[in-house]
Amino acid sequence: MAEKEQTEAVQENLNAETVNDSNPEVCFSPDEVNQFITALNEKSQLLDEMSDRYKRLQADFDNFRRRTRQEKEELSNIVAERIICELLPVVDNFERATATTATDVETLATGVQMIFRQLNNALSQLGVESINAVGNIFDPTQHEAVMRVEDANQPEGMIIEELQKGYKVNGRVVRPSMVKVVGN
Fold first, then answer.
1. Is 91 found in the same domain as 113?
2. What is the DSSP letter of 158?
3. pLDDT tens, residue by residue, 20-72
4. Are residues 110 and 142 in the same domain?
5. Residue range of the domain that includes 118
């Protein structure tokens, strides 16, 4: 109850002050005015400093973003150059093979097999490996089932035929194997 009485007393004092202040005039001494001006100037200077800091941070971030984009582009170009350098010998051998007029089919087949091995070696040096599919259980992260067949002799989900080879680069699937799966 004492709190209620105090609140009422404060309210009455406020009402009395507003009634007495019909012509309110604010008077400050020159020292107080100087203090206000000094504080205002300090705050203005602090605001300018913070604005400059913000602008520098924004410019630094823009530079960082541009530098990062350029580094990614350069790295991409380096990777592309490496791939091209690994594959150019294969292209050279294909050019040599097509330039000759071999009449012997076996010689031509042997040359193509050698070039195929060379291509596989180049791809393996780049981290490319094929995905084993036939005889394994279907894994949706590595295989894409395009056909389903019934076979009572095989377990459910067994891959019985690979229609297109799948590949991984450094353990990441870049193309899943297209397979035929047992579905009883």
1. yes
2. B
3. 555 567 788 888 999 999 999 999 999 999 999 999 999 999 999 999 999 99
4. no
5. 33-126
Predicted TM-score of the model (pTM): 0.56
For residue 142, which of 184, 182, 171 has the smallest C-alpha distance?
Answer: 171
> What is the distance between the alpha carbons of residues 106 and 88, in angstroms, rounded to a whole number?
25
Domain CATH code at residue 142: 2.30.22.10
- Rounded to whole angstroms, the Cα distance separating 120 from 114 reads 10
* Contacts of residue 143, Cβ cutoff 8 Å, sequence gap at least 6: 131, 133, 159, 166, 176, 177, 178, 179, 181
Q: Strand 177-182 vs strand 143-149: parallel, antiparallel, or unpaired?
A: parallel
104 pLDDT higher than 80? no
Do 138 and 63 lie in one domain? The reply is: no
pLDDT for position 126: 87
Beta-carbon contacts of residue 107 (< 8 Å; ≥ 6 apart): none
Model pLDDT, residue 170? 87
pLDDT in tens, 85-95: 888 988 888 88
